[in-house]
């Protein structure tokens, strides 16, 4: 193919989480194009040095790396940018080499998420290099993120892809505040998540025992401790529940003991994760900050009803009492407990909302739609 577009995909780190899965989905959707993948850090440094060197972090990275390598070569940039022994001069040489490699491509497209994955390189890219930025969440709490989102890099970014519609409500006023014209706003597009669906279609679940799921990183913003408070209160009230916890490790919470709790730790096996979705009636999300978590979309596809804090873009995707439930961020523990008790006593209501979840997911999160929309973005860049 003459002048075929070549994709250079930059991301800050490898970990097992919704953000990384979205990146993998994008690369899969664009697999007809040659792709090279660049990862800023070889471990999850955002959780601190101790965690980044732990066995768990290394297992997370290894599992995800195998999947990414199926679609193109992977380069870890911290080998060159962070290694003290190389010296500043060697680092500069490597940055020039990487910029030259991209600039020499006839039809290069750089896709990135988060400023740290590309801030060392963006001003060295030639004008013919097209740049796409993926925005996952509202970064009002991060001043540096806000600078690049609404100021410094806007004129250089050719397309800005938001992972859900609600983010436009946040980013649009920022553009107006800085004074960017409508032409810059026209570069923004929304592409919702894609997820896998049960091969047999909508799942009907038995209601003899309610299965409740938590899936996510054990990080501050996920507030896993709140989920533990919720389930411990329900267990104390002797509700017949089965609890499934994916992500957090039981060894970090030895004081939490109950035969009703199934701890899975970090999982990369998608078939096993889908088995857990299949048996789960309810997904609980207690986050203090989100864009739109992919786990909510995945849960809906498997007729698993989300109960989630109304943060980020969650409230634009969940309609209260229709395809899930929303709680306030400040009172999510007490409100989630009340909703779970209500659904336990009303299985017909739970089944109705579970069906709505599946129907909503079919219209919003199909792989075909995702592939078409991402391909359209790439082809629109000339």
Write the layout of secondary structure elements.
Elements: E1 6-11, H1 18-29, E2 35-39, H2 49-52, H3 55-69, E3 74-76, H4 78-81, H5 87-104, E4 108-112, E5 130-135, H6 143-152, E6 159-162, H7 166-178, H8 182-185, E7 188-190, E8 210-215, H9 224-236, E9 241-246, E10 261-265, H10 270-279, E11 282-285, H11 294-301, E12 305-309, H12 314-317, E13 325-327, H13 332-345, H14 347-364, H15 367-379
Parallel strand pairs: 1-2, 1-4, 2-3, 4-5, 5-6, 6-7, 8-9, 8-11, 9-10, 11-12, 12-13
Helix pairs in contact: 9-13, 11-14
Structural write-up:
The chain is an alpha/beta fold and 382 residues long. It folds into two domains: 6-194 and 366-379, Glycogen Phosphorylase B (Rossmann fold, 3-Layer(aba) Sandwich); 210-364, Glycogen Phosphorylase B (Rossmann fold). 42% of the residues lie in helices and 16% in strands. It has helices at 18-29, 49-52, 55-69, 78-81, 87-104, 143-152, 166-178, 182-185, 224-236, 270-279, 294-301, 314-317, 332-345, 347-364, 367-379, and strands at residues 6-11, 35-39, 74-76, 108-112, 130-135, 159-162, 188-190, 210-215, 241-246, 261-265, 282-285, 305-309, 325-327. Strands 3-2-1-4-5-6-7 form a seven-stranded parallel sheet, with helices on both faces. Helix 9 (224-236) links the parallel strand 8 and strand 9.
């Amino acid at each position: 193919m003459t002048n075929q577009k070549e994709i250079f995909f930059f991301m800050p780190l490898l970990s097992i989480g919704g953000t990384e899965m979205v990146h993998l989905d994008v690369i899969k959707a664009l697999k007809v194009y040659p792709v090279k993948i660049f990862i800023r850090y070889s471990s999850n440094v955002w959780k601190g040095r101790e965690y980044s060197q732990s066995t768990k972090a290394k297992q997370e990275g290894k599992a995800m790396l195998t999947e990414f390598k199926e679609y193109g070569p992977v380069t870890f940039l911290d080998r060159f940018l962070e290694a003290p022994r190389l010296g500043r001069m060697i680092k500069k040489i490597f940055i020039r080499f990487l910029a030259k490699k991209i600039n020499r491509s006839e039809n290069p497209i750089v896709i990135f998420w988060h400023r740290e994955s590309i801030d060392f390189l963006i001003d060295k890219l030639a004008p013919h290099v097209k740049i796409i930025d993926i925005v996952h969440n509202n970064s009002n709490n991060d001043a540096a993120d806000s600078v690049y989102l609404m100021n410094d890099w806007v004129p250089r970014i050719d397309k800005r892809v938001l992972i859900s519609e609600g983010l436009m409500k946040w980013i649009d006023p920022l553009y107006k505040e800085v004074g960017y014209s409508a032409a810059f706003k026209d570069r923004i597009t929304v592409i919702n998540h894609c997820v896998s669906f049960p091969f047999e279609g909508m799942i009907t679940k038995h209601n003899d025992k309610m299965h409740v799921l938590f899936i996510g990183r054990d990080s501050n913003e996920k507030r896993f401790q709140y989920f533990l408070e919720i389930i411990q209160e329900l267990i104390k009230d002797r509700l017949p529940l089965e609890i499934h916890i994916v992500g957090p490790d039981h060894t970090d919470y030895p004081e939490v003991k109950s035969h009703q709790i199934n701890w899975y730790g970090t999982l990369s096996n998608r078939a096993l994760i889908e088995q857990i979705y299949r048996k789960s009636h309810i997904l609980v999300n207690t986050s203090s900050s989100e864009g739109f978590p992919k786990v909510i979309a995945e849960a809906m596809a498997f007729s698993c009803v989300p109960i989630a804090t109304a943060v980020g873009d969650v409230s634009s995707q969940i309609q209260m009492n229709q395809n899930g439930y929303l709680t306030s961020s400040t009172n999510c523990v007490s409100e989630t407990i009340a909703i779970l008790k209500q659904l336990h006593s009303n299985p017909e209501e739970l089944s109705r909302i579970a069906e709505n979840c599946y129907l909503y997911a079919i219209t919003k999160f199909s792989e075909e739609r995702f592939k078409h929309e991402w391909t359209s973005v790439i082809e629109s860049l000339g």
